[in-house]
């Protein structure tokens, strides 16, 4: 197995007065992905431009991952994904009725994220997911519920923090065949745990999310192709340059995550 590397750039500490730090940008790059012609859009403080997404859809590309990050909304698209059709919605409230309607049409949630004021939900056909369940609560209350769903064959396929609670999407027949998770309060603790509990044990990162002062890391085995090179970058100084360098090595961006950094007094 190729050696898996972990790089992280620590955020600057908050000042002595109350302040909101830069929101996190969490990038997982991976070798061995089938994607072609990968591209990205970062919107800063602007809304997602639907014209960008539609133009890529017309080229056969699909959204593979999207999140609210230190760069604002960040969307990564690629060709040669399993997704046949795709739709997305940006909404102030969690769009429960819209999701229910799209689920009846054969769609499943394949990416979601929360900014300080809005939800982004991406649904796709062709994911292979047969069933999804969603619950929102504090992490302590979610943990026993997650354990119960895992016994029924569900895996965590997405999670996001809304500033107060976590929303978790769990799916059956996802691309994950085994999964564990852990939480960490700091970058350093997270890095050590990823190296020792994930990569040194032959597992792969699935997702890294941040909220409420903690990281949540999911990991395990894929249904295929576990022999992957992976790299995690936390809030790089220049995400665009990092992505470009990964592409030059023939490595794709598998996942982008974010997380709201809440005001902190020191």
Tell me the layout of helices and strands.
Elements: E1 5-6, E2 26-30, E3 36-42, H1 50-58, E4 62-69, E5 72-79, E6 85-91, H2 96-104, E7 108-114, E8 119-125, E9 131-137, H3 139-151, E10 154-161, E11 166-172, E12 176-184, H4 187-198, E13 204-211, E14 214-222, E15 230-234, H5 239-248, E16 252-257
Parallel strand pairs: 1-15
Antiparallel strand pairs: 2-15, 2-16, 3-5, 4-5, 6-8, 7-8, 9-11, 10-11, 12-14, 13-14
Mean pLDDT: 88
Overall outline: globular
- Uncertain stretches: 1-21
Order of strands in the sheet with most strands:
1-15-2-16
The share of residues in extended strands comes to 35-45%
Termini distance? 44 Å
Helicity, in percent? 10-25%
Order of helices and strands: EEEHEEEHEEEHEEEHEEEHE
Counted by DSSP, the helix tally is: 5
The rounded Rg comes to 17 Å
- Compute the number of strand runs: 16
Class by alpha and beta content? alpha+beta
Largest sheet: 4 strands, mixed
What would you note in describing this structure?
There is one protein chain. This protein has helices at residues 50-58, 96-104, 139-151, 187-198, 239-248, and strands at residues 5-6, 26-30, 36-42, 62-69, 72-79, 85-91, 108-114, 119-125, 131-137, 154-161, 166-172, 176-184, 204-211, 214-222, 230-234, 252-257. The protein is α+β, with helices and mostly antiparallel strands. It has a 4-stranded mixed sheet with strand order 1-15-2-16. Strands 3-5-4 form a 3-stranded antiparallel sheet, covered by helices on one side. A 3-stranded antiparallel sheet has the order 6-8-7. A hairpin with a 2-residue loop joins strand 4 (62-69) and strand 5 (72-79). The relative contact order is 0.24.
